[in-house]
Each structure stands twice: as C-alpha cells, then as structure tokens.
Amino acid sequence: MENTFVLHCLKKLSLTFLTLSVFATQQTYASEYIVEKINHHNQKQSSWVVLPYIFSSDSMGLTTGAVGIFDGYLQPQMTMVATVFVGEELDVTDEIDGNNKEERTAGAMFAVSGYKPPLTDRIFITMLGAYAYYPNQRLYLDGSNDSIRDLESNDPKSTSPLQTQGYSNWFEADFRYVLPWGESTDNALPIIQLDRGIAVNRDNSGGGTPFSTGQTILGTELFYSKWTADKFTEEPVINTNGVRFYLEHDNTDYPANPARGYRFNGQFSVDLGIGNSTQSWNAIELDYAHYIELDDFSWTRQNVIAFNVWSAYSPSWDKSESLHADGGVLDKHQTPMWEGARLGGWNRMRAYDSNRFNDKAALYGTVEYRVIPDFNPLRDNTWSPFPINWFQTVFYIEVGRVAEQYELDSLLTDMKYDVGFSLRALAANVPVRFEMAFGEEGSAMWVMLNQPF
Predict the structure, then answer these.
(1) Which among 309, 304, 308 is positioned nearest to 292, based on CA atoms?
(2) Which residue in 164, 153, 183, 159 sits closest to 34, CA to CA?
(3) What is the DSSP letter of 378?
(4) 306 beta partners
(5) Domain ranges in the chain?
(6) What's the pLDDT tens digit per position in 240-290?
(7) From the candidate CATH numbers 1.10.10.10, 2.40.160.50, 3.40.50.10300, 3.30.1490.20, the one assigned to the domain spanning 3-449
(8) Rounded Cα gap, residues 6 and 229, in angstroms
(9) 279 to 11, 169, 181, 208, 268: CA distances (angstroms)
C-alpha cells in the first residue's frame, strides 16, 4: 500500500459513530424564546436531568456514558448540555508492523445554547465542542451515490469504507441576531407556556405570513474541525476552519416540537484555506420544514405530520482537477465529507452511516408521523428531579441522493431510501430520541438530542 495514495485518500475523511451527541453539529431548531411551565410543582422554572445510556456498535463496541441537560439556569432562555462516554477495549491493527493492540472509544462533548451577553437585547451566542477518540472510524473514501459498501476489504483503492482509529475534535461558535420583525418586533424573546410539554398559549401562532409573523434570525457561525487517521505512518489529518452566514425564519407554534406552521433556512459556508486548513471550499444549503396538526384521538395529546426538504450544492468543487499534483481522490476545493452535500447519519438518511454519501450536490426529503399519547408514567413527577413531560412515538420514511452536478434528472433518479421508527421524550425541555432505521445497507440505531427537523 502506497503511503502517498493513502494520505490522499484519507484527506477525504469522515467519521461515523453511534453515541448521544450534543445538539449534533448544528441546532435543529432556530428560534430564541423563554419556556414557562404552568404546571410545575414548585416555583422554579429551571430544570435539569442526568440520563445514563449504554449501547453497542461495530465502530465503538459496548459504550456507556451519561448526558446532563440543564434548562433555564443562569438565564431563562439558556440550555446547557454535556456528555461523557467510554467504550470497551477493541482489537486494532497497526498498519505498519501488523501488531494488534487494544484501544477504546473515549470522549466528551458540550453545548451552551441561547446565552445573551450583557448590554444586548437581540444578540445570542451558542457554543458547541467535542474531543473524542474512536478505535474504528469508518472512512468513506468514495461516497458517491453508486459506491459499494464493503466492510470486509482493507484496501483503500477498492474499499468503502476504510476502517481506522483516530480523533474527531471540533468547535463551533454561533452569533445570532433576532430581527425586530414578526412576534419579536417588541421583544426578542417570546414566552411559550407549556402544560406538560405542550404549548398552550400559541393558538394564534404557527403558519402566518413570512417575516410579518414568526421569528427571523441572522446568524454568523465560526467553525473548526480536525480529524485524524492514526492507523498509518503519515497519520493523515484533515483540518477545516471557516465561517457560515445564514438566515432562519421560524413560523411554528413551539420550535422544540412543532405541531403546526413552517420554518426555512438558507446558509452559505466558506473555508478560505487559511491557517491550518487543508484547502478552501464553499457550500450552499437550503432547508424547509412544514408541520400539520391532526385531530387527536381519545388516547392522544398531539398528532402531527411533519415534512422536510433539504438540498445542498458546492460551487467551488472542481471535479476535473486534483488537489495534489500526483493525483489522488481529493478534488480541488472539495468540501470535507461532513460539510456540504452529504447524506447519512442521525438527521438525514438515518439507516446509513454518518456521511455515507457525499458529492457536489444533494437532495433529500422525509415525512414523519409524530404521536404524543396521553399515557405518561412520569406525568406527575413531583417525586423525581427528572422532568419527563411526554413520550412521543414516530414513524418515518426518507429518500435522498447525491450527484456530481445539480441536475434534477440525476437527483430524482435512483434515490436511496429508508424507513424507521423512534421513541422520543421531552426531558428538561429538550427532546431526546432513540431511533431505529432500516435501509438497503442494513439498519442503524441512534440516540440523539433534538428533533431531526
């Protein structure tokens, strides 16, 4: 195996892992607001919960951890989340000397959402970060729509994915400005009253005229990521750092778990290739979600059909040229596999590994049927510090495709698909979800925070 080829291949690095992440790498809902619980058993509006978790996967082995969620502390609109996890020891092979050794998954992640700096009324800051080591990352060197998934081979010239140990470290700082439009004309932070996790003061909210109702946010996000593949002599690394600019409009009744209305988002991401960045790139993403509330059954509190359409395109990606003069699979100005037009993972195409498919363009759509039953064994949780306001069952179907160019004929042909179900709960005003999804390449299980859209 030629190290130069491996180095070039692994520049196209992606991580797939199964763990309870912290808000993923982006928030799934955008609005800034204050939650007021009208049925709380004491005077404190702040709440917290610590949840242990355990799962087993090929890439991490048997893994245990705990996540803490703290809502309404320091400032009423703030949410803080932190998790730590550790896995069992797994056998890994050193590519250089062929020796076997044992290593384990270990890491920590954090998120602070909705912090309002002093002397400001409309600026909010969100910060997220992670530091983690994985003994068996899956690196999709060829993530095109027709690439073949082969977990047996270890030849980077013909393997998708290549499996190796390495680090995944990232940090994001998000600065958001709530525009004085719609329901935030006079007050940047609307108050949403919840009765056991269901909004009760929002009968006239959700689905109004864009920008005249709802909340609109302008945002700037600074991001940094470093990914390593320690299996090889040259220890390939990919670094990216840059900035995102975005516009978000939320016209739903309750952004954390909408029952009606819509939201849309447009963003432009750019890495200028400065500092330790591997190379420059840019990408555009558009996202639209719509929610329709159905009549309740005698045994339900909420029935919702939720739709989501998302698309991405990288204008910079030049598929006719390679980054290195002697070739390799990394094209010039190509987005990293976890940016731009990518599918697979906890939010889009959930039956597939994270970043399983990646290319210059992508199109994705999903439908979810969400039901909150009246039954909740923790509804009168005065005896417990863990506020679980509702449980939700969800059934969904997803379709998506990546392509070399943004052409609808290609993007709507030979689309990947999956189906799945989910059990979700509202814990400390944050949705927690356990998901199972089934697709052409098998099944996947995810434990995650927040609704996928």
Answers:
(1) 304
(2) 183
(3) T
(4) 291, 368
(5) 3-449
(6) 999 999 999 999 999 999 999 999 999 999 999 998 888 999 999 999 999
(7) 2.40.160.50
(8) 10
(9) 10, 18, 38, 43, 17
Tell me 382's DSSP state: G
What are the percentages of helix, strand and coil residues in the chain, rounded to 5?
Answer: 5, 55, 45
d(CA 213, CA 131): 40
Bridge partners for 359 per DSSP: 341
AA letter at 157 = K
Cα 39 to Cα 11: distance, rounded to the nearest angstrom? 53
Residue 320 half-sphere exposure, CB side, CA atoms within 13 Å?
Answer: 1
Distance CA 222, CA 137 (A): 25
> Could you report how far apart the first and last alpha carbons of the chain are, in Å?
42
- Among the ranges 27-36, 158-167, 174-183, which has the highest mean pLDDT value? 174-183
Kindly tell me the burial class for residue 5, based on how many C-beta atoms sit within 10 Å of its own C-beta (0-12, 13-18, 19 or more). Answer: middle
- Please tell me the predicted confidence (pLDDT) of residue 3: 38
Whole-number mean pLDDT of the chain?
A: 84
Model confidence over 93-104: pLDDT tens digits?
A: 666 566 777 888
Look-up of token digits 């044992």: 102
pLDDT of residue 13: 32
pLDDT at 5 (0 to 100): 31
- Per the CB < 8 A criterion, the answer to whether 225 and 169 are in contact is yes
- Residue bearing the bigger pLDDT, 382 or 201: 201
Mean pLDDT of 216-225: 95
Instruction: Report yes or no: 171 and 128 within 8 Å, Cβ to Cβ.
Output: yes
Integer Cα distance of 167 and 175 in angstroms: 27
Cα(247)–Cα(241) distance, integer angstroms: 20
Res. 158: pLDDT tops 90:
no
